Every structure is written in structure tokens, then in C-alpha cells.
Records
---
Amino acid sequence: MSTVRKIALNTAFLIAGKITGILLQIYIVAIIARYLGTAGYGKYAFAFAFLSFFQVLSSLGFNSILVREISRDKSRASSLIGHGIVIRFFLSIFSFSLAIAIISLLKIPQDTTSAISILSLILLFSAFQTPEIIFQVYLELKYSVLINLGNKLLTLGLVLFAVSKGKNLNFFICIAVATNLILVLGVLIFSRKFVRLKFSFNSSTLKWIIKESWPMALSAIFITVYFKIDTIMLSLMKGDDAVGYYNAAYAIMSNLIFIPGAYATSIFPIISSYFKSSPDSLAKIFKRSFKYLFTLALPIVLGGAILAKEIILLIYGEEYLPSVQAFQILIFAVGIIFISQLVSSNITAIDKQKINMWLTLANVCLNISLNFLLIPLWSFIGASIATVATEGTGCLLAFLYTIKYLKIPVFSKSHLQSIRLLISAGLLVGVLYLMSSVHVIPRILIGGMSYVAGLFLFRWFDQTDMKMFKQVIKLK
């Protein structure tokens, strides 16, 4: 199977699985949010935001380095993954202990403290999810997708049971812990198809992994702070209701960015190997990838901004109407993340992970500063603006560095072809407005079809694109 086709099929399978998983996740979140109410859901979201700071301490960005190195030499898979588990096991114990110590010192409501203490149990077995990277290395992401889908279905069943029995916040937290443990067991079972783990303890290998990973570790910490500090600051400055409104919109946004994540996950092993074997191919892959991701991002941003009210009402109900404006702002962050995921993966693949580290540090500083400035003025709307401004700044800097490294011109005559894409986007907007009296789901489907039709009608895709599409879908 060709590399192009394997990347595309993995991305397509991952996207299809992710779409199903995201629909399930949104349904799960909607049930929990409606059942707990804005204040209760705010506590639920705060618990997960708090945990995320310690989850990143338990992994410290090792996975990207392990994927990169195993992609270049698969014979090292067993040893590297085994060492990764050993390191992460000790980090997990440290993270759990630190989380419990910090939560005991914070002056927050008892029910929130209890929820966080229970949720922190996830840290104790997180190290054993490390073998999941082998699915990415071998471009066999279907296993990861199927494991996660099964886990989502189990979660949905347990959540529906909890609602029917009138359970409290802590029961929903226990569901998260139990299903996470089952997810880890699934990864351990299915990963044995590709790799047999060796839990060795070679000091030189451990030192090498740590040396290579520390920039990624700091980047992961900075990214987590950047993505979650707004929820923590909102909780402390404006209360649980503001957190509930913000995270209702944010949950949709965070689920929508699965597309660039799926693509980056599929392509990362390839560009990592090309950096050593075929550096000239990197620029070509980047330009095509940018084109495809931007083409996918544009209708999501435009459609989300136009249909924000209908989407919030459909998922959460009238209690969450204040979330509409936050969603209209945050949807622009989704479009930006489509590009930032791509450039971040390329920077790591070319062994320049320190660049990502400094960029994410700059993002953290900017985001915290903007949150301090805007949350007191506009609450969760201010946090939304801060997120978009920070995403835009970080993405622009990373993008400029990437095209400079790959020697891609900022402007060229080929960019004039983008008018074809804009016309197709205009067609989408027109259809959405003309169908304003129609239910949101048919509007999304018909609007999406009109956009795709416009792309082909106005020949946005060139001959190279069409050849690649044919190569992807051919059966032999």
C-alpha cells in the first residue's frame, strides 16, 4: 500500500471513528451538563481541568519522542516503550501524591475536593497506556479508535444508569475513573499484536529519553496550562456558573479539533522518517497538508459561527444560552488549531522541539495575562477572547518559522487560486442563511454538501490532488 493511501486511510478511519466518538462524547456531556445544571457541571469541568495539570506531569511529552524514534527504527519499539512505562510509572505516583497534597491545601467546596480526589486515581495507572503509541507507529490507528469507541459506549451506558438512579457528582467521577482503567486494559491487550514489552532499566537509555524529551515535557506542561488555566481562573474569579457556561462551549470546540489531531497523528511517523531519508519531500507534504486542513477548517468556522445558537440549544438546552456568544468566539480558535497542529507536528519531526517549547511558553504568558485582564471585565466571554488571541499569535509564529525552515515563499501566484475556495465558502454561507427556518441538522448536511460541490465545481483541487484522491480510493 502506498504511503499516501496509508496516511489517507488512517486519517479517514481515525476521523470516522472520532466523529462517532465525538458524537457520543457530546451526547454524554450534554446529559451530564443538563442533569447537573450549570453550577454542578462547572464543578465537574473544574475537576477535570485540575486533573489535567497532573496528567501532563505523569507523561511529560514522552510519547511524541518515542513515536519519532520508533518510526525511524522499529526494532527498538519493545525497549523504548518499556523504558517509557518505567519512567511514567514513577512520575504517576509523584503526580498523584502532589495532586492530593495540593487539593488538601486549597480552599474550595468539599464536594469539589472530593470529586478531584477520586478523579486523581486515574493518574496511578496512566503509565500503562503508553503502548498505545505503537498503533500510531504502524499506522494501525483502527485499534486505538475501536478501543476508544467501546469505552465511550460503556461510559454512555453508565451515565444513563447514573441519571436514572439520581446519582450525585461523585458517581459521575467514579464512572470516569472506572472507564479509564478499562481503556488502559484494552490498550495493553491489543498492543501485544505489534510489540512485546520489555520492562528493562538501562540508565543510559533512560537518560537519553529524558534528554530528548525535556523540551517536549515543558511544551506539554505549557500547553496544559494554556488550555486549562482559563477554567481554573474562571472558577476562582467568577464561580461555578461561569465555568459551566464556558465549558459548555469549550467542550464542543475541544472535540472539533480531532480532525487536525487525526491528520497530525497519521502523518507524524511519515514526516519523522522523511526528515532523515527525504528532506525535500517535507515541503511538499506540508503545502498539501496545509491546503487540505484549511479547506476543512473554513466551513467549520463559518458554519459554527452562524449556527451557534441552534447548536447550543440542541445540545444543552435553554439553560446554557449564555454559552452561545462564547461558542461564536471559540469556533475561530478551532480553525487556528487546524493549522497550529500541523506546524507543531512538523517542528517536532525536524528535531526542533525546543522551538515548540518556547512558543508554548510565550502562549502561556500571553494567555494568563489576557485572562487576568479580560475575565474581570467580561467573565467567560473574556476567557474566550483570550483563547482565540493566544491561539492566533502562537500559530502565526510557528507557521512563519516552519515556512522559513522549509523555504516556502509567503506569497506566490498559486495563492490567487484561493479565490475558488472563498467562492465555495460564500456558497456555504448563502445556503445556511437561506435555510434559516430549517432544523439545524439538515442545514449542516445541505450546507456541507453545497460547500463540497463548490470545491469541485470551481476546481479548487488541482490535478495532483485528484491523482492523490484516486490513489487513496483505488481498490487494487
Note: The chain has a mean pLDDT of 83.
---
Amino acid sequence: MAEAVVHVSSIAGSPLLDSAGERLGRIDDVVARLDHIDGLPPVIGLMARIGGRQMFVPAARIERLEPAGARTATTKLNLAQFERRPGEVLLRADVLDRSLIDVAAARLVTAREVELVQEDGTWWVAGIDPSLRARLWRLLPRRFRGHDSEHTQFVAWREMEPFVGHVPSSRLKLASRRIARLHPAQIADLVEAASHEEGEEILEAVAADKELEADVFEELDDEHQVEFLRERSDQEVASVLARMASDDVADLLLEIEQDRRLPILNLLPAAKQRKVKGLLGHNPSTAGGLMNPDFVSASAKATVGEALAGVRASELGPQQVSIVCAVDDAGALAGAVSLAELVRASEQRTIGDLLDAPIPAVAAEADLPEVARLMTDYNLTAMPVLDGDGVPVGIVAVDDVLELLLPEEWRRRAGIARS
């Protein structure tokens, strides 16, 4: 059979004919399997209404499939009543006009049309068209539709992840393999743009990677963080918070219902509890409230090589290791050195030798304007925060400052993740 292209909306509702051209019934839907890890999903048959019953017509029994209908390979069919099996989806009922994730573009799209292609005698799900043009095309009378082949917004199925929470086939799950290629902020955008049920499905898909799940929660806005934690138990919430940065945990705890804050805090690891409690003791808009208590420090007498070894051994994020705090014998801050300076310096030099142009520091009580002014004047991505004795207790990162300074309307909007 030559290569061909058909649309699900054209097939659904068209007649099912036998090999002699006699009408057997009406095609209600196209059945495909989405549990194939590699390649395109294959079409395994049709769901057709024959004699008032929904029957399954296997793909092997279909001789021709075209917009005008389908023709079977025989005049006599021994068909079984349709019964959905695990891994199967109905392309019209489960995919058409529903949201999917376009992983390549990191956005939600609506399948206004589903396209099938035939290769080597097998029909496959090739992709979807999310354009309104495809939706309007479907409104035309069937005899005028023909085949709209322009597909200027066609999205290949290999770049898609469909939501399947509404599909009765229990084995189907939203796969994380493609979503995991996205940045946590992009995944958070998708969650915020999706319905609550779709957002839960995305979070469930990334939950296999606990670190990624925590990173996504950090990127969600306050409203969505609370929305998706509200239905979880205290233990489940604590499990997520335990992997988040301490400053983000402190911020999120203040958004959770008051009667749940202490029980959840008490479920965190002891070290995390101490850090979070310390942060909660500061005004959120001061350096102490903005800072992250996790940072890299080294003796001012240590060599550059030793300081770099400490950076390599650290599991902190890029901004948290962008500076190294140098301390004297009493633990007070002697200065701070950027990672770039350390990399450029000889490994035999001491950190103290690099403190000629020190990075400024602020007291924990410093307000947001003072923090922002210093970071702007010195072009800093991070800055040490000191207690009353001059001991470094954390660092303020530029993203935490920007988060408070940016106008609400400039922040990530859910609409940009949906098309």
C-alpha cells in the first residue's frame, strides 16, 4: 500500500465497509498504543458501531483507511465487542481537543487534529496540529473537507507527551523521560499553565527524580506550591521540602496553613530544621530573610587548591558556590573570593593573597534596597551575610533579590506556556 495520510477527525464518524463495498457500520474511534517507548505509536485497530454494538476491528483486517471511511479485507468478520486494554488510547476521545506537552517548545498545546501516516503497511500516529485552522477545518461538512495538508503548526509525536490521567487504561502514565530534558523553571511553567489534574500528572511524572521534583517546587509560584502540597500528607510535604534550598523552605512554610507548619518543620532532618528556624527568625525582606545558609567557606590561610577542592566536594548549586567566604582564626569574615578568581589563580597561593579587592558583605538586618544597591554597584551574583560578630551566616544570591524587586506582571505568567 502506498504511503498515505489521514486525520482522526475525518475517520471518526465515517462508514465501515466490507470488501464488497457494503456498509457494515460506523467508525467511532481509532485505537492506538501509547506505551511504546521508542518510535511512533501504532494504530492497532478501529472502534466501530456495528448492529448497535461497539466492536473492535483489528488493523490486520483493514484493507484501506481513508477520510471517506475504512474498508475491510473480507465480507465476513468475526469481531469481538470492544474492550479497552492497558496501554490503549482512543485518539478521538482521549487525545483530540485535549492538552499535550510540546517538549521541544516547553509549552502546552491542544490537539485540534491528530494525523496518522502509513508506512510499510502499518498506520502510525505521526503528530498533532494545534492550530485553530485545523479546528475550523473540522467544522466544514465532511464532503468538503478533503485533506488539509498545509499543517504550518504541525508538531511531531516524538516531541509530545500526552496527558493520560483521564484514560481508563491504568498502566498508562505520563512519561518523565522527555520532560526531564527541560529546565525545572520550564516544568514549573507547564504546571502553572495546566489544570490542577494535569499539573498533578506532571509532578507525578517528575517525582521519580526526587531532586528534580524539589527543583520544580522551588520554581513554582507561592499559590501553586500551596495548591499542590495541600493534598499531601505532612510526611510527603516534608519529603519534598527536605530536598529544597533552606531559604525556599522557609518561604514556603510561611505560605502553608499555620497549624501544619510546626509538624512539617519537625519532620525535616535536624540540620535542615536548624537552618530553616534561623531563617524564620529574620524579616523576609532583609538580608537575613533573603540569604541561603548553605555556602562554601575556607580559612584565609588555605591555598587556592584547597578552596577549589572544597567547591568540588560541595553539592550546592552554581550560585551558592560562585563565591568562597574566607574566614580568620576566630571564624569572622576576612573577605570573599569569586570562583572565577580562584580558577584563574595559582593553586599554591593562599586565599588571603586574593583579598586585595574584597567582595562587600552585609549585616543580616540590612534591608532589601541596601542589598540591591551593593550587588548592583559591585556587579555581584552573590554576597556574604554576617551576624553581629562578623561571622558569615549565609549568602544572598541575585535571583533572590530579583524575585522581590521584579513587578508582579513581569514574572513568569502561566499563559506563555500554553498555545
Note: Residues 290-404 form a domain with the CBS-domain fold (CATH 3.10.580.10).
---
Amino acid sequence: MDTTTAAAGQHAALPQHVRVLAIGAGFGGLGLAIKMEEAGEHDFLVVDRGSDVGGTWRDNTYPGAACDVPSQLYSFSFAPNPDWSRSFSPQPEIQAYLRRVAAGSGVMDRFRFDTSVEDATWDDDARHWTVRTSAGTLTADVLVSAAGALSDPKMPDIEGVETFQGEVFHSAQWNHEYDLTGKRVAVIGTGASAIQIVPEIAKKVAHLDVYQRTAPWVMPRRDRPYTAVERFAFRRLPLVQKIYRTAIYWARETFVPAFTVNPKIATPAKKAALHNIERGISDPALREKVRPTFEIGCKRILISNDWYPTLDRENVDLVTDGIDKITGSAVVTRDGVEREVDALVVATGFHTTDLPIAEHITGRDGETLAQKWEREGMSAYKGATTRGFPNLFFIVGPNTGLGHSSMVFMIESQLAYVLDALRAMSARGITSLEPKPRAQERWNRDIQRRMRRTVWSAGGCSSWYLDSHGRNVTLWPRTTFTFRRLTRSFDVDAYDVSGPVPTTPKAAQTA
């Protein structure tokens, strides 16, 4: 995308008031802006602390970064991309896609980049949000958090990490200025980012220590380049691409019963993952180290063809002893072994069950969303709204994550719900709304009831899906088409609503 387009409106002054203010310019914020414009809702603003659209795909630029959902499904349904080069998209292509969609959307004049939200407070008398940002203060009738769940890196709580004298960076904040060639490097973590990073950097480092707390399930990555014929068909015959997308979608939905009904259904996948170990590692002792000890699917299932062969390399050691501390130049494990390193790469994930944006949002009773969720556990009605925080909507809210398919599908479902809510507010003269206590309680009680029988709760593992109360507050425990049906239209009867703000003093009204 032309950089002048990316910067459209970036340095303009903030308006004093907008109807809708969205936080985050990833898939959620960009999609909301496009759909609002299509619906004739032009009074909105999208702010993002970064310098471009893209969200997690703008920020995660580590070596080997790619999507683990097939390309055809990882795009807006209203903006198909005929130019994917492979069946699984690398990060630069996803970011380029989002920039291209943004450039052609006609909404970039209402985006403000390099703008952080410092606090947002609900004013119950005026029935609007007062939002203080790094670029100034404004008010908004409706606040939409599209900050996402994978936006704030989580550093490990390890003694001495702050004293390390070498280079330290999180996978989501990759230091491209630092050359790893010939260095001794430690990677902490064996999750989705690590299994992409390790095979790439192992080719250039002198030695690599990979610290594993729990061995993940890793399936073969069925990735291939699209042929010239396929790419021609995608561009000239849109129906072909639609058929690809539909077929992939329904194939992915067949995974749901294995996660939510009976883990035994996943036996073929389990066998494929175990064969992946046998094929990739020759050392029997190392094979045993990487063999998972929990049900497949309990943690996120990873995909890679080169993870296991990389662990089998001469210059790579898999360390399974827990880390005791970090000194100025080494990682010390609990067995007393000290391993000297020049650089630490931290691949320990994100704040998913304690979303940092919640610390900056204060509701009707003067309590922040973080305080409410810390006390009660993270929850929302339909993953979109929460009691005590009127006119606040989430895109990728609590219990909307997936372990099998594309989050873009869920995002589009939530966009439809928010857009219909805005229409209902306009049509009925609603100035504030929030879910009724019973509606929110019933929704979340049903989710947690369904969650008890899923592999995520009964699969024998602890994961980033679970909060400090042991509740799965991140994933959706049903099919995605069920979620779409339940969010297709705004159910105003489930909400407490208020009409226009009174213009006459209350005393006069009483008299």
C-alpha cells in the first residue's frame, strides 16, 4: 500500500466527538470500519498504537512467521485474495493483504495511528465514553475494543531475567538489528511462535538451546505453493476460490466433535502427529522428550514439517529441565547446569486471560474492567458486551477464540452483531445499552457447562486457554456456524436500554 494512504489522517487532530470509537486496526478494527462505511455509518474513528494496519500481523515479524489456518479461509469473505502464493500464508503476505484492503476501502481518513488509549471512562449522565489518548481526549457514544487477544506479549516470570547482559527480545518484538549468526542462543518456549522461529534461526546460530516446559502436539504442515493454473483461476473465476474456501471451512468444522464431544475421534490426528515424531527424529531419547503427555487438542495443536528435524540437529539441544534462574550470561536449570548464551529469545505467548486493555476501561460504577474480571473471571454476553460497561462492544471478546478454524470467520460474525446493534440504537432512539444480568449469566453458565466435557478442560493439561480460576475464558466450545447463527442479529430484548438523555433537570421533571 502507498505509504501516503497508510498515513491518511494519521496526524490530523482528533475530533471532539464521534459516534463510534474503535481501538485496534487489525482484522477487527479494519473490518468494522469497512462495514460501518458500507452501512452508511460514517461517524467513526479507529485508533491504534502502532504505525499501520495489521495488528498482530504487523507486529509479529519474527523469522518463519506464518499462519496455521489455510490461506483461503484467512481473509475477509467480502475481500477475497486471489494472490495467495501458498496454501498457508506467510506473515508478509497477510500484512500486505490487509494493507491492500485498507488502501481500497475509502476509510483510512478515519484512522489515527501511533495513538494509544490511556483510559476510557463511561459518563452515565451524558451517556457517552470519555476517552483520553496519547493524541488528546474525545468522547464517543459507543466504544469498540478490537485490540485482540494476541496483542500484548507476556514475559516469563524468571528470576534474574532483567540482569541478563546479552540481547533479550520477545518473539512479537523481534530485533531485526541484532544478527544471530554465529551466536549462542536460547529460545524459551515451544508454542506456536517457537516452532516457526527455531527451524529458521538454527540454520545460522552457532548453538541453540530450546527450553521446553511441555511437549506440544505437532501435526505435519500440509503446505504447498499454488500452481499457476490455480492462481489464474482464483483471479479470473472467483467461484473457484469460493469453492476452495467453502471446502476448507467445512473440513475444519469436522474437527469440532474431537474437541467438544469425544477426544477419541481425534485418534487419526494423534497417529499422524506421533508419526511426525518418528519421521523427524532419529534419537530414541529425544523422541521420548518430545512425546506429549496429554490428550491431543488440550493445548493448541501446532503444525510443522521441520520442527522435529531441527531438534535433531547437532547444534540444537532440547532442554526439559525447568529454568531456575538467569544470570548475566547464562540460563541455569533446576539440575544446576549453567548454559552460557549470547541472546535470549522469549516465545512465551501473550496476555490472553487478563487483557491489558481492560485496565484502561472504567465502567458505570467506577470499577475498571480488569478489576471486575479479576474478581469474577473474564466473561461477556455473546463475547461482545458485559454488564456495568454500557455501549462497550468487543471484537474477539471472551470465549470467541478457536482451536480449529479461522478467527476471521468469528470476527465477521461479531461485526454483524455490532452493526445490527448500532442500527437498533438508531431506530429505537437508544442512548445506552448493556446486557441484562440474567442474560449474561445464562450465556456464560451454558459456555462453562459445555466446556466441562471438552478436551480443553478434561485433556490433562494446563494452557493459556485457562484463567487463574481454572476456567476456559478464551475458546468457543461449539461450531462456528452456531456462533454465526447466534450473533446474526442483535437481540435487544436481552439488554437493559435507555432512551434519549433528558434535557430538563430531574427536579423539574419530578415537579
Note: The chain has two domains: 3-152+351-498, 161-216+254-346.
